[in-house]
Amino acid sequence: MYRFSAAFLGAIFLTVSCTDSALLDQYLAIPGNAWDYHEKPEIVARITDTVQPYHIYLNFRHTPDYKYANVYVLLHQTLPDGRDTTERIELPLALSDGRWLGKGGGSVYTHQVLIKEGVRFPDTGTYVFTLEQHMRENPLREVTHVGMRIEPTE
């Protein structure tokens, strides 16, 4: 009886923990782990609900050899009506003592940083987000992936 209950509870836990309500969670590979100014990954999100608030995260992966404690990114957004916006975002990646804030270890560290909280999109349709590295070094070495996550708030 105990084995059945433990297995049943384990299956329920796995089912619940694997449920992801994200509208989008995407990582795009950076060729050669060197993010050039001209390499501007695009992420497309189709928004169907203007009432639902969303949290927006910036996804960033790097190797342990990444030289900086942060990264600056220009987030360009094209709305369904064609209007464009751009904002500069700083992602902290390490503590002052050099320990990485992201998850992982070994060959890759993953950061998923909340950049906008409770955002309501003004219109339904296709939104295009373009990520551009905004550091002094070009190319920015040891960056493996960049991306975004958009999830409904609860």
Q: How many strands, which pairing sense, and closed or not: the largest β-sheet?
A: 5 strands, antiparallel
Strand arrangement across the biggest beta sheet:
1-11-4-8-7
Q: In total, how many beta strands?
A: 11
Our estimate of the beta-strand percent is over 45%
Rg, alpha carbons: 18 Å
Report how far apart the termini are. 36 Å
Could you describe the 3D structure shown?
This is Gliding motility-associated lipoprotein GldH. It holds the Pfam family GldH_lipo. Keywords: Lipoprotein. The chain is mostly beta strands and 154 residues long. It has a single domain, classed as Jelly Rolls (Sandwich). 10% of the residues lie in helices and 50% in strands. The chain is built from one helix and eleven strands. The strands form three sheets. It has a five-stranded antiparallel sheet, with no helix packed on it. The chain has a four-stranded antiparallel sheet with strand order 3-9-5-6, with no helix packed on it. The protein is globular.
Task: Considering the chains and any ligands shown, give keywords for the structure.
154 residues; globular; single chain; Jelly Rolls; four-stranded antiparallel sheet; 11 strands; mainly beta
Short description:
This protein is 10% helix and 50% strand.
Helices and strands, with pairings:
Layout: H1 2-17, E1 24-29, E2 34-35, E3 42-47, E4 54-62, E5 70-78, E6 84-92, E7 103-105, E8 108-119, E9 125-133, E10 140-141, E11 143-152
Antiparallel strand pairs: 1-11, 2-10, 3-9, 4-8, 4-11, 5-6, 5-9, 7-8
